[in-house]
Amino acid sequence: MDRLILLRHGKAEPESASGEDFDRHLAPRGQAESAEMAARLADLGFLPDVVLVSTAMRTRETWAAAEPHFPKAKARFDDELYHADSGAVRHAAAQAGASAGTVMVVGHNPGLQELAVRLLTEGAAPASLISRAARQFPTAAAAVFLFDDNGRPHFDGLFFPQGDLGRGD
Known about the structure:
By secondary structure, this protein is an alpha/beta fold.
């Protein structure tokens, strides 16, 4: 894997008809922000080869909103990404990355936020950026990392629906 894109699902409805968290749909705002974030990532050239998607309704709907911007990406739906911790997310991405250059994970907090902070720390990102990411990784946020030949992460961008925290170029 050369690049990892972590994309948190869009804003979800507070409740589902079933009463189960797993079944919550995206709110209209979540639909719009998911599509807008995907368009922004695609415009920047962040195009996944493989996309790992949690099987929860809100992550599947996030991918449905994002998919038109990534027509060549192959989606894989993974039950294990629902409530996955940062280690499980990283492991799933690494496995998918064995045969793909760019992997995107569409998932949930706290696992995605914890992994973003961990990769920022491992990659020696500025302390102010690590602190900001630790405080907030809102719905429809994306974190992008490049990996060198030794597997060390390097910050390549942190994007929020309401504004970016910068790029690592």
